[in-house]
Amino acid sequence: MKASEPRLLSRRGSAPSSDGERPVRLLFDARYIRTDFHDGISRFSAELARAVHEAAPAAGMDAVFLIHDDEQRRLLPEGARVLRIHAPTSPLEPFTALILNRRRPDVVFSPMQTIGSLGRRFRLILTLHDTIYYRHRTPPHDLPAPVRLGWRIFHLSYAPQRFVLNGADLVATVSETSKRQFAAARLTKRPVLVLANAPQRLEELLPAEARGGGSRADGPPRNIVYMGSFMPYKNVETLMLAMADLPEHTLHLLSRISPERRGELEAFMPPGASIVFHGGVSDEQYAALLDDRAVLATLSLDEGYGLPIAEALAFGVPAVVSDLEIFREVAGEGALFVPAQDPAAFAAAVRSLDDAAVRERVVAAGRAHMERYSWERSARLLLDAVRGLSER
User: Which of 28, 175, 289, 349 is packed most tightly, with the most Cβ within 10 A?
Assistant: First the structure.
């Protein structure tokens, strides 16, 4: 078997739909699911794949998931049919459509925009999550060096992105904010579909005896939780400076961090401040920290989405965040908004949550706002779009 030949790793063929018609053949690109820990793209891929797998039969779809690593199978729903091809960082990626043509899909959906569309004989949906890398061009550090170089070159101009996106029939994104930014930059001539991120179910990650509220409602927040990277635009320095006015609180910095970056940030630590660098936590540890009288915080100067905010609000945890358009969309009235570079304003907002009435209002508003987001809803929107494309 040639390296470029796709290999179906479960049963071949497809069953007819209940009305006797051939189901729509959908290939879902699940190659961005990480097998060590989820980043944003990985979690988006895995959660949407689960919901699509569950909804596809009733929608008359035959969904098959593209993988490049056998380990990815365990992160897909039980019974999911998979097709193994090359990795998305492979030199073969520009020719992926020519490889997939052999499988005769009706529609291919990718949670990214880099899948090759050259010579395709199927409908194609590409995803661009946001435009943040045009403003902050540093690529993910775990990519191979040639890919990182190509990443930087790609984001020097909108022209390559326009070329790529216009090679699709439909472009997906994760927020109305991103959709407006695409229009402002004239990134694509194709219709744009919003498939919103949805929060993971943190309640399910707690021990059974701690579910149903835990210590979240035991009193005013005393722990401030930050989940995110330590890139300069994340503005973690201001969070640390604010701790000078919050001596009774502890700031928990959860994500992995290099020794060099940690040393830079420790220079901003006020005397006597309680700040803990966790260096990475599991999802279960993340849920436990939020469950312990916490407030979710971020003072990012720029952002593509803000999934930790959504997760906290759905979990019943208040948030204090910088006043960004995307955060307004994600949080609604379920967060307190402050100027990004004002540590005193941040500290005052955190202290305002000592008032039970304020805290209860913010938590209730956050939970109500998050009811509009679910992976099931995003899957239905995607499958409706797939159906529409297949009928054209």
Answer: 28
